[in-house]
Amino acid sequence: MTGIFFFYHQSPTFSFYCKMFLFNGWIILMATILSPCITLFYGRRVENMKFMHLSILPLKNIYGIKFMVQGSENLNIKKPYVIVSNHQSCLDLLGMLEVMPERCVTIAKKELLYMGPVGWACWLCGLIFIDRKNKKSAMDVMNRVAQIMRQENLRVWMYPEGTRNPEDTLLPFKRGAFHLALKAQVPIVPIVTSSLKCCYSYKEKKLKPGNCTIRILPKIETQGLGLEEVTALAESTRKLMQETFYEISEDLHGEKEMKQ
What digits encode the pLDDT tens for the residues 75-134? Predict the structure, then answer.
């Protein structure tokens, strides 16, 4: 045991993997504990997200990660809408739960459903799973979601980059989130999280306390727009979110200016 403490304090790499083991282990443990209780008393419903929030919230305090939220009033929308957010790392889960509105579900890859108790817990919380390798199947799912969004007053959270991206430039956006918003004729609400490099870097094996900013931008209306506008809508939203990312990631923005 003494040796473990020694390596933890002396080896940044060993310390990083210990922290990641705790992060993932905590989530698996909470899913294992909560899933039977939710199944027994509530069944599958969107409102179960509050249990996920309460169970994962301690991780933010354990790692000393603080989020400053700007523009929270932009989520005061009573009707359904689609949230699009940048996706940097596993820590995005903490940021998402920090600002997630009521009756909000996320779109997740199908593989997550088969990850034991975590997949079961996600299903119980109403997550919607898509097969990203099957374009037709994924589109069919999105069309069904567009139909039920208004019926059940749902908000849908999506990461249009499609995968984690630790770089300073957002990846090209996939069209799914924008197709959904146009199909359902609901607004898009962009949410941008500043660079997480101050507290997390897998490449550098770093996970430490830090302060991050989450900025919720005003809604983008889609009422009256047709599906032919999906590409232009995705590109304009990405440009807006990229500019916001540089603005709230002050250190990175300064570096960008120096390079120019």
Answer: 999 899 999 999 999 899 999 999 999 999 999 888 888 889 999 999 999 999 988 888
Assessment of whether the complete model's pTM goes beyond 0.70: yes
Distance CA 93, CA 107 (A): 13
Report the distance separating Cα 214 and Cα 98, nearest Å.
Answer: 9
- Token code pair at residue 171: 């990846």
**Residue with tokens 């990846």, as numbered in its chain:** 171
Report the alpha-carbon distance of residue 104 to residue 77 in Å, rounded. Answer: 12
Give the per-residue pLDDT at 258: 35
Distance CA 139, CA 227 (A): 13
DSSP letters spanning the chain:
-HHHHHHHHH-HHHHHHHHHHHHHHHHHHHHHHHHHHHHHHT-S-GGGHHHHHHHHHHHHHHHTEEEEEE-GGGG--SS-EEEEE---STTHHHHHHHHPPTTEEEEEEGGGGGSHHHHHHHHHTT-EEE-TT-HHHHHHHHHHHHHHHHHHT-EEEE-TT-S---SSSPPPPPSHHHHHHHHHT--EEEEEEPP-TTTEETTTTEE--EEEEEEEPPPB--TT--GGGHHHHHHHHHHHHHHHHHHH-HHHHHHHHHH-
Rounded Cα distance, 85 and 165, in Å: 12
